[in-house]
Amino acid sequence: MTTTATTQDAADLDNSDLLNLVGLFSETEIELRDKVRGFVDARIRPNIADWYENAVFPREIVAEMGDLGLLGMHLHGYGCPGRSAVEYGLAALELEAGDSGLRTFVSVQGSLAMSAIHKFGSEAQKNRYLPGMAKGEIIGCFGLTEPTAGSDPGSMATTATRNDDGSWTLNGAKRWIGLASIADIAVIWAATDEGIRGFLVPTDTMGFTATPIEQKLSMRASIQCDIDIVDVQLPAEAVLPDVRGLKGPFSCLNEARYGIMWGAMGAARDSYEVALKYAQERMQFDKPLSGYQITQQKLVNMVLEIQKGILVAVQTGRLKDAGTLDPIQISVGKLNNCREAITICREARAMLGGNGITLEYSPLRHANNLESVRTYEGTDEVHTLILGRHITGEQAFR
């Protein structure tokens, strides 16, 4: 015999979680989520408008993120937290509900720089860098994208030449590299006679220069840089020994893409909640905006896509934790969730009217940030072609 929910039961449903997706998570996962949500409420929400307006990355919260176990949280050993993929995803969602730029810091540090060292580094490299990076005492960056090679890293122009004594000389340039101007160690990918290799470059090395990119309209509470590499001299042990070719950086990008599919839903959820609250409080023509049919339609469309996007993320996370995740499945979440999130944030901004263009409200800030999020770690077009190749068996990149 089946039963239906009573009116009271329906009233108890979370307006942001109509399907009770919270029931899909364990007590440990919910505890982690709530801890990160509390951090966002206490440390990010009260300050993010000023950080964003003044283009300030709040370096003072890096150690706090380390204390919370947010840095390299999905990695095991070497002082890393060793959390599950789903726990990492929930943390990314809550962080991006605060701001994409601060979730991006966690992604660059953990999913890119730390993952590269953890996956491909020597034991000496892992022991030297990972414990300090997990604590936030050492900041890393990941140098793959170049001024003329964004979506096509196979056209990489940065080179590394092996010298007679086994050392290396690096030359080239990188662009849109998160954290580079405050990083202590850079993972730089370069073309060699042996294929593409990864190198650990201390950022105080002569010939290495990182310059922040200014006058940005997106990710203003984050740091992205140009890097110039001019005759940088590195010892033989600077190379990551356990990888050659693009599979190295691509495996790290997939770690970042995974976190993005969760994070984008955080920005969407926050924008929806702001729009819902505003619609319930804003009076127009003698009744609240929420009493109009078009407003309700917009809110319903938002929450439906958020619920579906979180389901995509949860299923992807469970597959990842089970060790059965295919990279193709990451493209599903990155493409879908970024695309839907930016639509939700823009719609929420429109519902706020003129007030929506101010930093008093979050949706336009989220929408601006998501312009970057949907571009980095694979544009919509790149992930469409990845999925299209899988579906049809035809290569359409060229």
TrEMBL record:
Its cofactor is FAD. Keywords: FAD, Flavoprotein, Oxidoreductase, Transit peptide. One of its GO terms (molecular function) is glutaryl-CoA dehydrogenase activity. Gene3D superfamilies: Acyl-CoA dehydrogenase/oxidase, N-terminal domain (1.10.540.10), Butyryl-CoA Dehydrogenase, subunit A, domain 2 (2.40.110.10), Butyryl-CoA Dehydrogenase, subunit A, domain 3 (1.20.140.10). Its EC number is 1.3.8.6. PROSITE patterns: ACYL_COA_DH_1. It catalyses: glutaryl-CoA + oxidized [electron-transfer flavoprotein] + 2 H(+) = (2E)-butenoyl-CoA + reduced [electron-transfer flavoprotein] + CO2. Residues 245-391 form the Acyl-CoA dehydrogenase/oxidase C-terminal domain. SUPFAM superfamilies: Acyl-CoA dehydrogenase C-terminal domain-like, Acyl-CoA dehydrogenase NM domain-like. Pathway: Amino-acid metabolism; lysine degradation; Amino-acid metabolism; tryptophan metabolism. Residues 26-137 form the Acyl-CoA dehydrogenase/oxidase N-terminal domain. InterPro entries: Acyl-CoA_DH_CS, Acyl-CoA_Oxase/DH_mid-dom, Acyl-CoA_Oxase/DH_mid-dom_sf, AcylCo_DH-like_C, AcylCo_DH/oxidase_C, AcylCoA_DH/ox_N, AcylCoA_DH/ox_N_sf, AcylCoA_DH/oxidase_NM_dom_sf. Residues 141-231 form the Acyl-CoA oxidase/dehydrogenase middle domain. GO terms for biological process: fatty acid beta-oxidation using acyl-CoA dehydrogenase; fatty-acyl-CoA biosynthetic process. Belongs to the acyl-CoA dehydrogenase family. This is glutaryl-CoA dehydrogenase (ETF). It comes from Brevibacterium sandarakinum.
